[in-house]
């Protein structure tokens, strides 16, 4: 299983779109891996977790063939995770020789409604016929292609936001953006489901070294460690589990130094735009 982190920034990106804080000004000058676009993760080039406004940049600058995305899992409806307007471009005069002529979108009811609203004015009938939207419900298993997906509950602000357990070819990955500390129901569900330890956990690390408020809707390194510990307790994470932190905000200044220190102290990998892992 190949996992590619195309976008590793929070909603505002880095440098944040309209920000002149010292960190953003510095990144604007330095460029390179500190520039972070909005959330998108590809699995085997054909399954995308989320579809941000920066999908265009992922295709143009990072070289991703987004016409190959057959399945799209939407965590929640925030615009940095689901920019539905772009789907009007998936066909007609805008796209030829698409690798996958069809696209199946799996999302909560709110995101499905946003898809309808955002595409209502410009979506051609010929394009609409190639896109199917399926509504997911928490803890209900969904299968497509060779994938088995369990949507779990996230602690986040949108209506019924999800995090995902994704399984394929004996590999298991847990995708934890956007969320604060996981609800107890998730641990109960995962514990009852059992199975082999995860191959990969992707953590929301919006706050990095900053302290998170109680009941925060994102996580930092301390919260990641709490979640990891709970997953270890129920046998779902062990030494072989790869742990990746992502979804960084300019507010937590994910400089090379701060990121290096996080990786060293916690044993995590820090995602950067375009980073690929083979599991
Ligand atoms: Zn986000
Ligand atoms: Zn800034
Ligand atoms: Zn969000």
Structural commentary:
44% of the residues are buried. The protein is globular. The protein has a seven-stranded mixed beta sheet with strand order 6-5-4-3-2-1-14. A seven-stranded mixed beta sheet has the order 7-8-9-10-11-12-13, covered by helices on one side. A hairpin with a 2-residue loop joins strand 9 (162-168) and strand 10 (171-176). 23% of the residues lie in helices and 23% in strands. By secondary structure, it is of the alpha/beta class. The protein has one domain: Metallo-beta-lactamase, Chain A (4-Layer Sandwich), CATH 3.60.15.10. Bound molecules: zinc ion (ZN) (3 copies). Residues 16, 19, 21, 23-24, 250 line the site of one zinc ion (ZN).
Helix residue percentage: 10-25%
CATH architectural arrangement: 4-Layer Sandwich
Mean pLDDT: 97
Bound molecules: zinc ion
Number of helices: 7
- The parts where pLDDT drops under 50 for at least 5 residues are none
